[in-house]
Amino acid sequence: MFLDTDLNSLTTVLSNLYELFSIAADRMYNYAKSLPRGKQPKQKIMIDTIRDVMRLAFVLMKSKLKHGKLRAVNYQNSVSKAQINWLAATAFQRALKKRQSVYGIILAYLDKCLSSSQPKSTAEKARMQRIIRTNWTKKSLEMNRAI
């Protein structure tokens, strides 16, 4: 429902997606950080996981259009693969930048993802940056309230 562009604006759906990717990225970072040095996942495994999350998000969103029960209730989704990849890469990059020296290879991979899925138009780029900024501000406010 919260990814349906028939019920929500495209901006709202993209914002919801970014929030989901941010949660996944923060959890991955915290999980890896909590493990002892010798048991932390290799960067290749983490890159494969990020790539799989991007693919899975796209496939699941599009498969609802073809096969799922939502087809009967006019589920629509006009989010592109590039938008999904850009939002996911941005979320994981923000989470992993906290320890750049440890995650350099992953951050380089995410930079490639960002450049290959860059929004084409100026308006689209502004929308995506606004989504990131809004979610980042919301997250900061929630963290301040918790303190």
Automatic annotation (TrEMBL):
<dbReference type="GO" id="GO:0070034">
    <property type="term" value="F:telomerase RNA binding"/>
</dbReference>
<dbReference type="GO" id="GO:0007004">
    <property type="term" value="P:telomere maintenance via telomerase"/>
</dbReference>
<keyword id="KW-0460">Magnesium</keyword>
<comment type="similarity">
    <text>Belongs to the reverse transcriptase family. Telomerase subfamily.</text>
</comment>
<keyword id="KW-0779">Telomere</keyword>
<dbReference type="GO" id="GO:0046872">
    <property type="term" value="F:metal ion binding"/>
</dbReference>
<keyword id="KW-0539">Nucleus</keyword>
<dbReference type="InterPro" id="IPR049139">
    <property type="entry name" value="TERT_C"/>
</dbReference>
<protein>
    <recommendedName>
        <fullName>Telomerase reverse transcriptase</fullName>
        <ecNumber>2.7.7.49</ecNumber>
    </recommendedName>
</protein>
<dbReference type="InterPro" id="IPR003545">
    <property type="entry name" value="Telomerase_RT"/>
</dbReference>
<feature type="domain" description="Telomerase reverse transcriptase C-terminal extension">
    <location>
        <begin position="1"/>
        <end position="109"/>
    </location>
</feature>
<keyword id="KW-0158">Chromosome</keyword>
<dbReference type="GO" id="GO:0000781">
    <property type="term" value="C:chromosome, telomeric region"/>
</dbReference>
<keyword id="KW-0808">Transferase</keyword>
<keyword id="KW-0548">Nucleotidyltransferase</keyword>
<dbReference type="Pfam" id="PF21399">
    <property type="entry name" value="TERT_C"/>
</dbReference>
<dbReference type="GO" id="GO:0000333">
    <property type="term" value="C:telomerase catalytic core complex"/>
</dbReference>
<keyword id="KW-0479">Metal-binding</keyword>
<comment type="function">
    <text>Telomerase is a ribonucleoprotein enzyme essential for the replication of chromosome termini in most eukaryotes. It elongates telomeres. It is a reverse transcriptase that adds simple sequence repeats to chromosome ends by copying a template sequence within the RNA component of the enzyme.</text>
</comment>
<keyword id="KW-0695">RNA-directed DNA polymerase</keyword>
<dbReference type="GO" id="GO:0003720">
    <property type="term" value="F:telomerase activity"/>
</dbReference>
<dbReference type="GO" id="GO:0042162">
    <property type="term" value="F:telomeric DNA binding"/>
</dbReference>
